[in-house]
Each structure stands twice: as C-alpha cells, then as structure tokens.
Design goal:
The complex is a heterodimer of chains A (391) and B (279). Chain A has 12 helices and 13 strands. Chain A has 391 residues and is α/β, with parallel strands linked by helices. Chain A folds into 2 domains: 139 residues, Aspartate Aminotransferase, domain 1 (Alpha-Beta Complex); 236 residues, Aspartate Aminotransferase, domain 2 (3-Layer(aba) Sandwich), CATH 3.40.640. In chain A, the strands form 3 sheets. In chain A, strands 2-8-7-6-5-3-4 form a 7-stranded mixed sheet, sandwiched between helices. The relative contact order of chain A is 0.16. Chain B is of the alpha+beta class. Chain B contains 12 helices and 8 strands. In chain B, helix 10 crosses helix 12. The two termini of chain B are 34 Å apart. Classes of the chains: A alpha/beta (391), B alpha+beta (279). Chains A and B meet through helix 9 of A and helix 1, strand 2, strand 3, helix 2 and helix 10 of B.
Chain lengths: 391, 279
C-alpha cells in the first residue's frame, strides 16, 4: 500500500502550525548547544545570554511597531491569552463581565467557560453568515460592568479579519480593557501598534516559522499587569520561570524574517490562495467559500464541498501527501462540526464537508497545481457514495 | 488523525457494493444530518434470502468502511440471520474500530434493521427509538429509549462511553448525569416502558425532499424579491432555515417563514413540519 511518505509532503495547514524556517533553526541552535547558560546568572557565561533575549525582544517589537518593553515572552498563545484575561480581571475586581466573540479559539472560549463557573458573566457576540461580527450587538454588550473584551484579530478557520481597533475604542469608552488573540495575523498582515488602542494581544511562535513552545504577549505601555505565573523575577517580574532561551531567540529571528516577507505574504502567498480557490470552485460543482472573502488573511481559504464529509476528503488527500484540515467533527473526536461554521449558520451538509487550506511562503504554485488536479476526483468519488448527492 | 487498521482502510479506499439495488425489496435509511453521517442500505431479497446489498453513505472513513463491511456481511444471509446481526458483527469484519467511531458500526446495524422492517412492512425500529421516549441528549436528539437499547447491546455502564455508540452526551455534555442514571437504572433492572410510534419517512428521504422543495418551490418565489433561503438543519420535524439577501433584512420575514416556507414544506413534504428561522 502506498503511504504519504512515498509522496512529497504538500503542507497547506499553516494556520495549524508552520515549518521552522532554516534561518530560525540556525539562530537558535547555539542556545541548545554551547550557550546553555541561565540568563539570570551572575557569571559571564550565563549573563551574556540575556543580551540575546533583549535582541529578540527588539526584533519582535519591530515587527509589531511596538516598544521592546511592551513585549513579554511566554510559552504559547494560550498562556498569553490566559495571562491577559486573568490580569484584566484582577485589575477590576468589581467588574464581573467579559465579552468575547462566538468564533474565538478554544483558548478563549474554554477559558470563558471556566470563568463562568467562577461566577463571571461571559457574553458572546454573534457573527453573520460570512462570519462578520455583529458590531451593534457588541456595542450593546460592552457596558460599564465589563472588565475585559477579547476578540480575535483574525479567525483561524476562515481567516476573517476583525475590526480590532474599533472594538478597542468601544471597550475604552466603557473603561474595559481590550485583548485580542492575534496568533493568526502576526507575520501575515502588517501590524502597527504605534497609534493603537489595543491594550494586550497574544502571539505564538509556531504560527510564524518559529518552533512550538514560545509565545509572546504585547502589553501596551501604561497597562497594569499582574503576572499569571508567580515565582522568580524573570521578564521584569511579569512572567516567572527560566526563559526558554532557544525559543525566544527563534521567535526573534522569525519576527525579523516575517518583517522582510510581509509584502511577499500579501502578494505571492495571496496569489497561491486565490488561484487555488478560483480553480477549485470553478472545476468542482456545488462548493461554497466560507468567510468574508473581501476581508480575510491572504493565506487562508475555507471551502465546503457539499454533501460529503471532511474526514474522508482529508484521508484521501493525505494519501497524496497533502496536509489540510477540516471543519468536520469526525477529525477531532468531537461529535459536532466546527463551532465557527456553526456560529455562521453554515448548513450542516456544508459544514461537515468544509476543508481549510492555509498557505505559507514555503508553498509553491506546483502545490496548488497538484491539489487542483487531484481534488476534483476525490470529491466526485465521495459524492458518488453519498446518499445526499443527486449529481 | 485516526489510527485505522488496514482492513478499515481497504474498505474505505475500495468500498464494496456502492450504489442502490435496482427495484430493491428493502430499503433502510438511517442517520442524522447534524452528526454528519447517514446511510442508505438497499437489499434484494429472494426466497427469504438477501441476494444483493448496496449502500450509499455520507460520513467519515469509518462510516464508509462500516457500510461496506455490512453489505459484505449480509449478502447470502436469510432474513432471520440478518435480523440477529449486531454492530459488533460489523466491527468483527473490520477487525476493530477506534472506540470513538463505534457509532459508525451502530449506524450499519440500524440501517439493516430498518431495511428488514421495511421488507416486512413494519415501522422501522429505529424510528421508534428516534422519536419515542424522552429526548435526553438535546445536542443530538437522542432519547432514553435509544440509550437503553444501545447500552444493553454493547454492555455500556459508563455515561461517558455512550457517545461512542450513539453520540448521546457527546455535545455539550449537559446530559451526562441523566445518562448515567438511565444506565444505573438499566443495569439495576428497572427499565422504563417503551411504547412505540412510527414515522413514515426516513431521515435521508426527508432531507432530500426538503432540499428539493426549497430549491424548486420556495427559492424561485423568494428570488423574485431579491431574496434567498438556505437549509441549516433538520431535527425531527423541526426545519431550521436561514433567509438570505433581501429576505434576511425584511421586517416581515416571520410572515415569509410561516406563509411561504412552512406552508410549502407542509404541502409538499409533511404537515407535521415546523419551520424555524436561524439568524
């Protein structure tokens, strides 16, 4: 039997995680080998490492148009999210309300459920059929009892970009803090925090070609912050725990590369995505593109192949070495399809057959060609088995 | 990704007996649009023996493999033999299924039972389970009658495990305590009574028919006014739809719903249908 390993891997699941850039690996390698010292040490051997952390901090800040001291290194996007929300709640002990969107990542949604068990009120802002936020409802929900508003900058499944500056203003009007989960946007679209109202945002290294296990939280200058992890004095007493030096150095290098490639992402990577989408929807009947096509990340396409089920599609793509992901329930072990597509009211027959393709600068037009030449037959084959398909 | 064995993969990649038997003597239609799997089994029966079996399945790899295995298993069986087939027999053909995918084999068994009932002119047994009793799991519309049946057949004692077989409790999880007390009651021996009722149309038939009526009868009417409509979900007799275009913004959309959409669906599909608008 042929297996995926016989094929070249065509990785179009970059919203899940990304390849570590060779330059990043090279930059971090010395800190896994010879420079293993603890940056908190008094001796030169350890102490010299601290300068590399600061160098990485400056690079991340440069990518974001932020000041270096506004960047806090963490272990992942989820830690950044939790740190931000818990800190915000601590600052406003009398406010018991949190407003989030219905399409947040589980890192926020499940945290919300946990906070509800602790007596907080969590309100979720609905989205329309294109996944656009209901801004009127958001305005109604955010009030003077709201401690924090958290709405993602861009959605991982559809790529939709949300009006975070506008939401930050609404939050500010009511004295609430605004946090955004920005793990999907950093490195994909231009970010400039210079004139931003956003109080805090989360990013994650492995979404921009750094390895897993490192993230950051942007905390706008002047925003009060309470550490999530208590302990040592690392990160200016804001995040205890010995620094993940190789990871931080890697994130710095990845940020520098992302800065160099931001135009490429918005031109070449967008071209790959647009070509794939146009060709697939042209050749395969009864498809729908999920999301707000005019306002989304340049690398993401979410397409429903109606009347068939996503896991089956992914399994057949996998045999060709193509790695994508699905809004289908069956792939995750949960029994319900994607909460994002459900919040958008995507019909079940389409939600179960939704496939997400997410590109990076390491993809090529040959990847697009291969997917476009193989997928129509896969869809046809599964539709021929489907009792819902009448074609 | 699931770790399917070679047998499951080979039934998925080269499914046997795909399609519909011509002039079928028995049809079994089961499944649920919400859950993302549905199976239509058609049988040719001669002299009390199944001489041909074909399937069509909407679902994941293990659903397709289970359906294929089912058709292989039942071909050549007498009706009496087929009647005794359980989901475990289907799993045995495949070697094994991941625990979370056992419901795929249950769907196979249910399709077979529905087909046998159809052959005998009886109400499909599954329709009784689906519609009789009290809905325990609201996420997937599973009743206490069905939970008892599945638990008994698969010797399930923990509420957590029920979802692997019939999905109950696998959504929000709010009914797990309820399921546990049903299981406790079952294994103590004090089962609830199960009266039966029946439903004429299978779920696949109903979905197809509703989609057809929406497409042919309702959409053209709405399109005249620059609007549109989309089917979101079907739960029993509740049809959830979403209005599009100008209809979505129309202040009298509830009248459109009741007077046009519901009226047409009741006329062409079933008078029992209720329509609900999802915004």
């Amino acid at each position: 039997m042929m297996s995926a390993s016989d094929n070249k891997t065509i990785y179009v699941d970059n919203n899940a995680t990304t390849k570590v850039a060779p330059e990043v690996l090279e930059a971090m390698y010395p800190f896994l080998t010879e420079f293993y010292g603890n940056p908190s040490s008094v001796h030169t051997f350890g102490g010299q490492v601290a300068a590399h952390i600061e160098d990485a901090r400056a690079k991340v800040a440069a990518l974001l148009g932020a000041k270096p001291h506004e960047i806090l290194f963490t272990s992942c996007g989820t830690e950044s999210d939790s740190s931000a929300i818990y800190s915000a709640l601590y600052q406003c002990p009398n406010k018991k309300k949190i407003v989030v969107s219905k399409v947040e990542h589980p890192a926020i949604l499940n945290l919300g459920q946990e906070l509800e068990r602790r007596g907080y009120k969590v309100e979720t802002v609905p989205v329309d059929s294109k996944g656009r936020l209901d801004m009127e409802r958001l305005e109604e929900m955010v009030d003077d009892k709201t401690a924090v508003v958290s709405v993602m900058w861009a959605n991982n499944e559809t790529g939709n970009i949300y009006p975070v500056e506008q939401i930050a203003e609404i939050a500010e009007k009511h004295g609430a803090l605004f946090h955004t989960d920005a793990v999907q946007v950093v490195g994909k679209i231009l970010i400039d925090m210079a004139d931003s109202q956003i109080d805090m945002f989360s990013l994650s290294g492995h979404k921009l070609h750094a390895p897993k296990g490192v993230g950051a939280l942007y905390i706008r200058r002047g925003t009060r912050f309470r550490p999530f992890l208590a302990g040592g004095h690392q990160e200016r007493n804001r995040r205890a725990g010995t620094e993940n030096v190789p990871g931080i150095v890697a994130l710095g290098k990845a940020a520098e590369l992302a800065n160099d490639n931001i135009d490429f992402e918005n031109r070449e990577v967008r071209e790959l995505r647009d070509t794939l989408e146009a060709r697939l929807t042209d050749v395969i009947p009864v498809t729908r593109v999920n999301g707000d096509v005019d306002n989304r990340l340049p690398n993401t396409s979410n397409i429903s192949f109606e009347f068939i089920e996503g896991e089956s599609i992914l399994m057949l793509l996998d045999r060709l070495g193509v790695c994508a992901s699905s809004g289908s329930a069956c792939t995750t072990g949960s029994l319900e399809p994607s909460h994002v597509l459900r919040a958008m009211g995507v019909p079940y027959t389409a939600a179960h057959g939704a496939i997400r393709f997410s590109f990076s600068r390491y993809n090529t037009m040959e990847d697009v060609d291969l997917i476009c030449s193989e997928l129509p037959a896969i869809v046809k084959r599964l539709r021929d088995i489907s009792p819902f398909w009448k074609g | 990704m699931w770790d399917y064995n070679d047998k499951v993969m080979s039934h998925f990649l080269k499914p046997q007996n795909v399609g519909e038997v011509e002039n079928a003597d028995a049809v079994g239609d089961v499944g649920n649009m919400t859950c993302g799997d549905a199976l239509k089994l058609t049988l040719k029966i001669e002299g009390g023996r199944i001489v041909d079996a074909k399937f069509k399945t909407f679902g994941c790899a293990s659903a397709i493999a289970s359906s294929s295995a089912l058709t292989e298993l039942v071909k050549g069986m007498t009706i009496e033999e087929a009647e005794k087939v359980t989901n475990q027999d289907i799993v045995d053909v495949l070697g094994e299924l991941p625990e979370e995918k056992m419901h795929c084999s249950v769907m196979g068994m249910e399709a077979l039972q529905a087909a046998i009932a159809d052959y005998r002119g009886e109400a499909p047994p599954d329709a009784e389970d689906e519609h009789e009793g009290r809905i325990v799991c609201t996420c997937f519309g599973v009743t206490d009658v069905k939970i008892r049946k599945i638990a008994k057949e698969n010797n399930i004692k923990e509420a957590e495990n029920v979802k692997n077989y019939c999905k109950a409790g696998g959504g929000c999880g709010g009914c797990l305590d309820d399921i546990q007390s049903i299981l406790d009651g079952l294994w103590r021996g004090d089962e609830g009574s199960d009266d039966s009722a029946s439903e004429g149309m299978s779920i696949v038939q109903k979905v197809m028919k509703i989609q057809e009526v929406l497409e042919k009868e309702i959409k053209p009417l709405l399109e005249r006014d620059g609007g549109g409509i989309e089917l979101v979900d079907i739960q029993g007799d509740l049809v959830k739809v979403s209005l599009r275009g100008r209809c979505a913004m129309c202040p009298t959309s509830h009248l459109t719903m009741r007077n046009v959409v519901q009226e047409k669906l009741r006329e062409f599909v079933s008078p029992a249908l209720e329509v609900e608008e999802v915004k």
